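User: Show me a protein chain along with its predicted structure.
Assistant: Here is one chain, sequence first, then structure tokens.
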Amino acid sequence: MTLGLSAAAEGGAGEGSGGSGELPAGWARATLGELGVEVQPGFASGKHNRDGDGIVHLRPMNITRNGAIDLSDARYVMDESDRRVEYGDVIFNNTNSPALVGKTAWFGSLEPAAYSNHMTRLRGPEGLDSKFLAIQLHWLWFSGYFKTVLNNHVNQASVARKVLLATEIVVSPLPEQLRIVSEVEQQLDRIEAGETTLAVGLNKVEEFRKAVICSAIPDSLPSHWKSLTVGEAGSVDLGRQRHPTWHTGPDMKPYLRVANVFEDYIDTSDVKEMDFSGTNGRYHLRVGDVLLNEGQSPHLLGRPAIYRGDPEGAAFQNTLIRFRPNVDITPEWALLVFRRHMHTGRFMKESRITTNIAHLSAARLKTIEFPFPPIDEQEEIVKQVRQQLENADRMQAELGSVAQGSTRLRASLLHAAFTGALVPQDPADEPASVMLDRIRAVYGAKAPRKRAARKPRPTSPGQEELPS
């Protein structure tokens, strides 16, 4: 099997790769095995710590989506295994969730590190620049190639050693590899600077959205408003508990659960059914009912949305709480109150934590304060909030469009890099085929499992570790 670049071209996201098209003069295609790349898996660390005792132990989460190494959450081990990643090595994520297998980074620290058995260390031959290899493998991940060659297990996926060795890459003459790496790094620095600015903008939009919601209802209520409890403002009920005996029956209805209820919208892409016979409509929903998450991570506890009739005839599970407002309280006002309680942490104060999940019982919800202005003020405040949130939605959509453009730009850059379109070729450069001939002369047709030879580590402190 010699896939790699050609598979990325056919099925990858964005531009794809050079595929089976004609390569520039002096370039060649080869699998990692044909190139004699050393492939060494890591080891299970056992106990590790955050105190800095021992040496850094790299894990899959230390490789970012941009192909850098992030040690902001570093773990350390005392293990004396000789499996180390050193300056200039390539580190490959071989086991993770399917979407993350194949992330690759170049290791640029002068201090060696241990690495997880979910990762593989790669060392290429003389004539193959390690950054050139790392960037190209990470591009294969970015293009979606590794999704096509995974071994899938329960909640995990992996790339076998033989599959990795059979992965095909393109190789340019070594001087051109260095020119490509230099140009890619410069351009990626610019792209990532823009992405950082974009992330700041998206965070500010989210902060604006929360500020709009939280400031819509003052902490000190106007004198003509009433202060009720949630239980006084409407009825509060918990949904029906799931049970195997209700998976089939004469009164099957769609029901909503935590996975369906997000802030201000209900996701109906995955709605399950349950038998509700004999419940006398107790768990059925009406248009205008407000559903709140009963169990969630603490900062999302009480996440609310209005049931607006989709799916039709739905009921609800006991992971949700239903609030049905009194006639003089609009559902939109109730939704605003509950969104404010979620964002200010009011619901969190009433939570009970079990196995990392916060719970808000119906009984505790009933006792929480519920501001109650006249209905015309409710409608006016909700209208103003909606207008401001629509402005936030437009800003977020515009920034999202820029983010998609950044992804396309990254794909175009890497496509150009590995098809010979990024930097000019120099006819005086030694062709990559000469390097391949040298490798075949030393190792024969079959690449070695390991090589003792190792290029010396640099001693200059000028070589910096990759940014996180």
